[in-house]
Structure formats: structure tokens, C-alpha cells
TrEMBL record, chain A:
InterPro entries: NADH-Q_OxRdtase_suN/2, ND/Mrp_TM. NDH-1 shuttles electrons from NADH, via FMN and iron-sulfur (Fe-S) centers, to quinones in the respiratory chain. The immediate electron acceptor for the enzyme in this species is believed to be a menaquinone. Couples the redox reaction to proton translocation (for every two electrons transferred, four hydrogen ions are translocated across the cytoplasmic membrane), and thus conserves the redox energy in a proton gradient. This is NADH-quinone oxidoreductase subunit N. It is found in: Cell membrane; Endomembrane system; Membrane. It is an enzyme of class 7 (translocase).
Amino acid sequence: MTLQLPPIAYGAIAPLLVMFGAACLGVLVEAFVPRRLRYAFQLMLAMGSLLAALVLIVVRSQGADYAVVTAGRALSIDGPTLFLQGGIVVLGMVALLLISERSLETGGPFVAQAAVTAGSDIDRRQAAHAAGGTEVYPLVSFAIFGMAMFVAANDLLTMFIALEVFSLPLYLLCALARRRRLLSQEAAVKYFLLGAYASAFFLFGMALVYGFVGSAGTDGSVGVTFAEINAAALSPTRGTGLLYAGLAMIAVGLLFKAAAAPFHVWTPDVYQGAPTPVTAFMAACTKVAAFGALLRVFHAGFSANSWEYRPVLGGIAVLTMLVGAILAVTQTDIKRLLAYSSIANAGYLLVGVLAFNKSGLASTMFYVVAYGFSVLAAFAVVSIVRDGDGEATHLSRWAGLGKRSPGYAAVFTFLLLAFAGLPLTSGFTAKFAVFGAAVEGDQAWLVVAGVVTSMVLAFPYLRVVVLMWLSEPGEQTPSVSIPGLATSMALAVGVLATALLGVAPQPVLDLTDTAAQFLR
Amino acid sequence: METTTLYAEATGLLSQTWMLVGLPLFGAALLLLLGRRADRWGHWLGCATVGATFVLGLSMFFALAGLENKSVQRSLWDFIAVGDLKVDFGLLYDPLAAVFVLLITGVGFLIHVYAVGYMAHDPGRRRFFAYFNLFVAAMLLLVLGNNFVMLYFGWEGVGLASYLLISFWYTKPAAATAGKKAFLMNRVGDAGFAVAIFLMLATLGTTQYDKVFANVGALAGGTVLAMGLLLLLGACGKSGQFPLQAWLPDAMEGPTPVSALIHAATMVTAGVYLIARSNPIFSANETLQLIVVLVGAVTLLMGCVIGSAKDGIKRVLAWSTVSQIGYMFVGVGLGGAAYALAIVHLLAHGFFKANMFLGAGSVMHGMDDEEDIRRYGGLARHMKVTWITFATGWLAILGLFPFSGFFSKEPIIVAAYTGHGWRPWVIGTATLLGAGLTAFYMTRLFVLTFHGPARWKEGTHPHESPKIMTIPLVLLSIGSVAAGGLMASSVPQWLEPTLGRHEEGHAVLGHWTLTILATLVTLLGAGLAWALFRNGTATQEQPAGPLVTAARKNLYTDAFNEVVFEKPGVFLTRALVWLDNRGIDGVVNGLAAAVGGGSGRLRRLQNGFVRSYATSMLTGALLVVGAFLAIQMGWLS
């Protein structure tokens, strides 16, 4: 038997290849480059590859007919793919800046040897002195590559593989915190177990859908593409029970990654336990990837029956918004608070997805990228509010921060107001766009739920603002460390993007609008 | 009356009308931004920008005079563009705007120069000139806009500048209170103006003058009446007309140049400008015109009566301003040819009232800031220039031939006697009576200040003011003498393109009869005052009959405001606070407690055990799959 290799449009997948190559090269660097040079090597390699990928993506998008389905119809490089890949790469670069910060703490936020028993003498020594491990960089590179492929996948199998490619490095990254080792390891194990569980749902759902479609390759593809699923759903040859059960399970798998209720349970624990730069990376990039995939699955693969299953997903969206908003009210840890905020934002994003129209697609893409910038900046601030024991994440410690460090408190206040959706911030523009799209798609009930929960959610944000500005600084209030160049840059980019997308969002809105066309 | 306005092309100098607003605005911004660094030379910059604007305005005036279509319109940029709503940032330079530009910058420049001397010892002089420039910029925008939104923009700008300048000495409680009072009462009028603009947008879809005026004829009578009344409310607020007159006399707490420029010559006449500019709206409804005339007549009599009983030199002048603007309202209310007469009176008044205010400032400057005219007397010998210049202003406001008031006020009296039925008799007589009362209180003011025995406080050494203050006085007094005669026929002709050509109506009394009557009444009032006050007056308040007491108390209008507006307002506030505390806060706090409690309970589900998490995910997944299958079975659709 001879294997017939399908034709491949290398120009379209060049960004993916660059990122994949750099990640593999990073593993080799780890093996062959001397220890003291590895940090610089790895950082430059990762950053350089992302920059190259970004340039390739931008160049590709300037071409007249950039949209193509390639590699045996496994990958679809279309408007949404390029926009989301660009978003993931830019957000990834900003997150990488946070990850590479080494001036806040000796050796950076990561541990040198993650496998040492937590709490032992060796562990204490390495926490105090040893430089952090540089395996982080190839892991992050693999994750970003996986995410970029996830949003481009044109069939469920490719999507599943990409899901695993970016999930596995994330599980590992969660375990690498320099301080509070046990919490970090616990977070990694929880994330891994529940992630595997969710993957199983996805895989089973995929099998059911394949069973429903029945035959593969009718359109010259290798796997079962979204186009074939869509065609089969329009003129079913077998019972649609398989289709619905399969789609439900696939949705469960994806909603887990997107942190929608009731599949959100891992989020607060993992966000709290993981090293803050990794939390930032997950909150920004994983969100983009997850919603990119959700959009493609629902809009490109299963749009034929959307009006039937939309109420169920609407219920999930409302539940997600409610759970995120209500639970945020009583949080006492800033990272957990941001985790619940991230859950509520998943709900708002679902509102955009469920609009099931072009403006819904465009506004969701805008929202997820705009939110990514704000959340990266917010975690950047969290990473610099610290004392001798590392980050001071308990909210009581933030009391009076406005008097100690008015500049950073002002920045954080701005970000919180952006999360709350105040005008002149990207939070307002983004919410306005998704809610507008939902109204256009006759989903006013979701908008009502969105507005009500936004009001509830404003309370925890404003509570932090009040705490920072109106409380007297106590003995315990930590001072803000002077951030290094990398964190400063990440913070500046995040805050500037939040402000710019709030004041003059039109260019990016236009961009998402022109990009909002799936090719299946 | 359907007219299409023809525009000349905005070329050459006339394409630069934005500079008129831009120059003083630039001055204000520079003075505010540079802060103390500009303290030493800031006042000269303030004068220079206004002076340059005057020169520019004058050259544009001549450029416009040479054109066939005397109107230049230019849109600078889209100010508001939302859906169908589109408002340009556009300027219109036409005959009406041109004369206002000259008045504002000409009189404004002289008062700026005067203020250099007047404010010489004030530590806040630079700030003063910054606000002054800001005022000039806003006032120019007000008269130069080509739509009502621009007009409103300038309207609010002058309101802001006026507020800042009234309470310029903000450490003085009376000044701070007066600033607030002016601000609040203006808000009432401004709200009316704003609603009028909304009404225009709702019914006509535009606020641009030419489009509004071309289509106003097609509107229902009630709509035009409502629009006009709302505009009138705005005009009353800004111009201190009944029933919103109370703030204007209090505004005299500001520095005297402010009173002269803003609260006598320019800003307070904005209401007259608004009505004259909107003449097609007002001419379209007779009821509306009658209301305007009545407002003017009531105010002019009220101002006279109260002015006769006041003892502060600036207070008397302020009530006199209220009363004179009443004359202008009568003019614009009469409509037709009287629009132009009102503008003529406005311009003439700008000169002689600014002259007298600055004269009052000069007197106060030499009398240790004493304001009480009972404490003056015999100043003619000590302040020759101030005396003579003030005398010209006094003769001008009296309206004696050949001073400017004769040419500007007398035609309004004649116009008021024009018409049918009861109207000419009532309104004409009111204006005639006003002329007599004006003569009475102005003569009282003049005699008590400059003649009779000296009643100064101990240790006062009156002296003439420095040249920088007297030179503007002399120039303004030339204007007080000559302006009326020069403008009486030329200005109405010049304004024809904006206000239209009108035949004069037929007065119920002969023209000559009225002239002689007016002169007689004036002489009577002046003679009475001369006889009563030539030997001075008591320096303390004396018991008086009911009319004088009422006039001293502003005809009980302040008491009326307190009972009718303030008391119910305070009560309403208290009731709302009570409702807010008990009712609304109760509901909100209850909701908040419910959310907090729910949050606390839900939190217990987040117990940290993976097995619980997995269970909740499984439950969720079962529900989702179940729901999807239910849909597939058709149970849920």
C-alpha cells in the first residue's frame, strides 16, 4: 500500500511550522547548550519564533485570497484563523515577557527542579537560590503552537490533537511555581485529572459524530471535516441522536477549556496555584484558543441545527455569568477573584458565540483578544505586589495600596474598571459589541442576564478599588516591587491596548468584521 | 415668507473666520497652561489677542461689505455624526454676526486695557485675563456658529466664564454665592434652550440656521410656539429677564471690568441675539411675539422701579441693565422692522453702559472700593475725566438729543406705539413710563455721586484713576455720544440680509408727538431727581412707604423665589432622600445581602476535592447530553 501525501499550502501553514520548529529546537537547546547560556538562548528563540510567526501571519493576511483549506482538508487558514492566531501570538509574546521576568525574585518565578519533594531542605535551598528551570520556554512554545493549530483545525481529530498539544505543557507549567510548591503541584494534578476527563468527553463525542456522518473523505479529505458534518446534518442518512449526543459531549470538552459553568470548577484552584505568569498566559491565550474552537465548531460545523440547541447553550451562558459574578463577590484572594471574573467573561463571550451571526463572530473575536490584554496587565500587577514571602495575593493585604503606590494602584483601578465595562475602556467596547450582536440575533434574554450580572460583578471590582484607595495602609500592606523591563513592557502593552481599544476601537472592529468568514 | 439665503464663497480672509474664535482661545489656553510663569506679562497677552481679533474682525467686516451676497458659511468639521444625526462644527459670518464681532472685540479690547490698570494690585491678574479671553472666545463662538448647537456651545462657554469671573474673588462668601446663584438660574434657562434644540432635531432633523428657518413654516403652530417659548426661556435666563432676573444684580460681586463686559455690554445681550437670530421662528407665531413683548415690558418697568431704590452704584447700574435689555426684548418681540431697532439699541447700550460701569469702577478705585452712593458726593471736582465721561453715558441712557440713546431708544418707543387695539397703548405707555423712570434713577445716581455735599467716610482721599483706565473711558464716552446717531439708519440697512426688509408700521400717535412726549417725560424724571437729591441724602437707610420698601426688596421677587421654588425644592429633596434611604436603599441592600448570602453558600461547593469537581462536571455533562437528546426527540421545542 502506498501513502498518497496530500498537497500542502506551505505558505499558509508557515507560521505553525515556525512555531513548531522553534519548540523542538528549544528541547535541543535544553540538552546541548550550557546552563548559564540557556536562559538567553531560550528566550530569544521563543520570542524570535513568535515574532517571525506574527510577521508571516500579517503578510499572509495582506494577500488577496489568503483563505485556504489545506493538508488534506485538516487545516483551514481563513479570516478567523489568521486573526485569532495573530491574537494568540501577540498575547503569547506579552505573556512570555512576564514569564521571563527575573528581577522580581532571584531566578524568576519558576522552580529549578520541580520533582524535588516539596518542603524538603533541598527544595527550600533551591527556592531561595537556584535559577529557575528553562524548560518553561519550549513548553510555552509548544502550548502556543498547539493553540494556533487548535483555532485552525478543520476536522475534529486535528482539533483533538491540537487540544492535547497545548494542554499537556500547560499541566506541567502549572506545577513549576517557585513558592507555595504544594499548592502549585496540587493545581497541576487537579488540572491534569479534570482535563483528561474533559478530553475523554470530547473524544467520545467525536466518535459519535463520526458514526453519524458515516463516511469520510467524500470531499477529498483525510478525516471527517466540518464541511462533511454540516452536509450530513443538513440531509441526515441516519438517526440524529448520534449527532446531538456527540455534539453535546464535544461541547462539554470545549466548554471545560473555556471555563464555562458547570465545567469551570478547576479554574479558581488552578489560577491560584499556578505561577502568576502562567495564570496570565492561561487566562489570555487559552481563552482565545478555546473560543476560537467553539466558534468554529458551532458556526462552521454544527450551524445547521443551531436554532434547536441554542437554548441549552444559552442556559449554560447564563449559568456561567451568574456563577462567575456571584462567587466573585465573596472572594478574598485576588487571583481567585480574577479567576471568577474570567469565568463570568466566558459567559459574556458565549453570548457573542450564541448570536449565531456574522457580527456575533466578529464581536466575540474582538472581545476575547481585548480581554486577553486587560487580564495580562492585571496579572502583571498582581505579580509585582509582593513582600518577603512572594506575592501578597490576599485581598486584606491590598488595603491602602493607593497610598503606598498610587501609580500602580491607579493602573490596577483602570484595569478593574475595564473589567467592569466602563466606557473609554476596551471592556465597554467589547461588551457593547457582543451584546449588540446578541440583540441582532434575537437573543435579548442573554443580554438581560449579561447586564444584570455585570452589575453584580461591578461590586467585587469596586470593592478592591475602595480597599486600595479608601483604607489606611496597615503594617501588612506590602510595597510594590519595582518591576523589571519585561514586566513593565507587558504592563504597558496591556494597559495601552485596554485604553486604545476603548477610545479608538474602530480599526480593530473593522479588522474583525472583515475577518469574520469561516472557510470549511 | 419663504427666503433662500444666498451664500458668498468663503475665500481669502473670510475663509479664516475660525481665527476669530481661535485667537482668544489660544490666549486663554496659554495663560492657564503657563501658570505663574506668565504672571509678569500675561495681561498684555490677554489684551493683544483681543486687540488682534478686533483688527481681524474689522478687516473681515470690510471684506464682507464688498460682497454681493453678504453671508459666508464654512463647515470646519463634523462635530457630531451619529446615525442620521449630523451636526457640523460650522461658522456663519453674516451682517448680524459681523456687528456682534465688532462690539465684542471692540468694547472687549477697551475693557481689557482698562482691567490692566484696575487689576494691577490683584495677585490673580493672569488668571483673570485667562478667563476674560476664554469669555471672549466663547462669546464669539456664540455669535459665529451656523447652527443652534454651536450657539449652545458658546452659550455654555460664556456661562462658564461668567461663573468663574463672578466668583473670581472666591474667598469672599458673597462672591462665591453670587457665582452659584448665577450658575443655577442660568441652568433653568439653559435647560429650556436645550429642550428647544431637541425639539428642532425631533421635528426638523437639523439645527443649522438656514435649514431650520426654511422649514419652520411647515411646522404645526403649537410646535413653533413651544420651540419659541423654550428659546425664550433660555434667552430670559441669560439676559436676566423676568422671571429669571434675580442673578444679574448679584453678579456685580465680580470685578468691575467683568460687570462692564459680561454683565452689561455683551453676554447678557445674548438673549436678544438668540431671538433676533431666530427671527423666522418668532415671526411665525403672533402669540409668541406678544409674550416676548410682555416679558420685555414687565422687566423694563421692574428694573426701573427697583433701580430707583438701590444704593450700591453697581447695583443701580445692574438693574438699569435689566431694564434696558427689557427695551431690547420689546423690540425683538415687536418683530418686523423693530428687530433691527433692538440690535441698534443693544450696540448703543453696549457703549454707554460699559462706559458707566468702568466709570463706576474708576469711582470705586478712588474711593477705597466704597460702593454706596450715599457715601459719595461732590466727586466732580476730584475726578474730572471720570465725571465728564460718566456724564456722557448718563445723557446717552436718558436719550436726550443728540446723544446715542435718543437714536436708539426713541425708535423703540415709536415702534411700541404701532399696531391695533389695546396693545400699542399698553406697551407704548410702558416704554414711555420706563423712559421717565430711567431718567429719575440715573439722575439720582449721577447727582449723588458727583454733586452735592461730600458724605465720604473718614480717611477717604478721592483721586483720579491712572491713564490706562481713563483712556478707555474717553474712547467709550465718544462712543456713547456718537454711536447712536451713526448707527440709527446705517445698521438696520446693513442687517437687511439677515433680518429682512420691513415697512415701518403706522404709529397710533404721531412721530413728532412721541418724540416731544418722551423728551418731556425724561426731563420730568431727571428734574425730579435733581430737585430731590441735589442737597445729598441721608447716609443711613430711612423708613419708607410700601412702594419704596418693596423696591428695596427687589419687588419681593427673591421672597417669591424662596417660597415658590426654594422651599418646595428643599422639601422635595428631603422627601426623595427619605425615600432613597428607606425604600430604594432597602431594596438594594436586600438584593446585595441575597447575592452575598448566595455567594457564601455556593462557595462551599468549591471544596478543593477533585472528586467533587469531577462529579459536578459529570452532572453537568449528563444534563447537557440529556437536554440535547431531549431536543432531538422534540421534547423541548
